[in-house]
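Good morning,

Attaching, inline, the C-alpha cells for the sequence recovery test we're adding to the shared suite. The designed sequence is right after.
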C-alpha cells in the first residue's frame, strides 16, 4: 500500500484530503505545518509521495520542496503542491522549485485521485528501475570476477570461490553468469577412457581404473 504524506494546517482541508485518499486505498501520514512535513519526509522509510499545502506556518510548502530537492541521494519523493494560487507565475515558481505537480483549492476528489495515481505510477516505476540497476551492477561485478585471475586446482580443476571454498568449475560459473552447461566428452577423453566405443575398436578391453 502506497503511503502519502499530507501537509495542511487547515483542519477541514486536511480531513478532506485524508478521507479521499483513504477511500482510494492509500495509507496516510498527516502533518500540520511545513517543519513537521520536512522532518517526516527526512525520516527513514518516509512516504514516497506527498501533498503539500503552499501556505503553512513555520515553513511554507515551497520551502519544503526546495529543501527536499537540495538533499543528495535517492529515491526522491513525488511532491504535489496544493494551493489557492492559480496565477501562471506561481505555478511556474512551484514547478521550478522542484514540485512534480500541483493542485488548486478547492480541489475535486477525482482530480486529487488522478494526480496522486500519476505520482504512484512514477514512484513504482522509479523503484523498479532502481532494482534493475542494482541487478545490472551485480551482474557487472560478477563479470569482473570472471575476468579476473581465478585460483584453480591443477589436478581436479576445482575453483576456489571468494569464501575460500573449492567448488566445481561449472557450479562457480553458473552462479556468476547465466551460462548453462551440457556435459559431453571430448575425442581425446573418449579415446583414453572408452576406446571400445570408437569405430574399429570393437573387442578392445577397456582400461582398468
Amino acid at each position: 500500500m502506497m503511503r502519502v504524506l499530507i501537509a495542511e494546517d487547515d483542519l477541514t482541508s486536511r480531513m478532506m484530503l485524508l478521507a479521499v485518499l483513504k477511500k482510494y486505498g492509500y495509507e496516510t501520514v498527516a502533518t500540520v505545518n511545513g517543519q513537521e512535513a520536512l522532518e517526516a519526509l527526512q525520516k527513514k522509510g518516509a512516504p514516497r509521495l506527498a501533498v503539500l499545502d503552499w501556505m503553512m506556518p513555520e515553513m511554507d510548502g515551497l520551502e519544503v520542496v526546495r529543501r527536499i530537492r537540495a538533499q543528495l541521494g535517492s529515491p526522491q519523493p513525488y511532491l504535489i503542491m496544493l494551493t489557492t494560487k492559480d496565477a501562471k507565475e506561481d505555478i511556474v515558481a512551484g514547478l521550478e522549485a522542484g514540485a512534480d505537480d500541483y493542485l488548486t483549492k478547492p480541489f475535486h476528489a477525482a482530480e486529487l485521485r488522478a494526480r496522486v495515481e500519476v505520482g504512484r505510477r512514477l514512484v513504482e516505476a522509479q523503484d523498479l528501475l532502481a532494482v534493475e540497476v542494482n541487478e545490472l551492477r551485480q551482474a557487472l561485478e560478477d563479470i569482473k570476477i570472471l575476468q579476473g585471475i581465478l585460483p584453480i586446482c591443477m589436478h581436479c580443476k576445482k575453483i576456489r570461490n571468494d569464501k575460500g571454498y573449492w567448488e566445481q568449475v561449472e557450479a562457480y560459473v553458473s552462479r556468476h553468469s547465466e551460462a548453462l552447461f551440457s556435459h559431453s566428452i571430448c575425442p581425446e577423453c573418449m579415446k583414453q577412457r572408452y576406446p571400445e566405443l570408437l569405430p574399429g575398436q570393437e573387442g578392445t578391453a577397456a582400461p582398468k581404473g
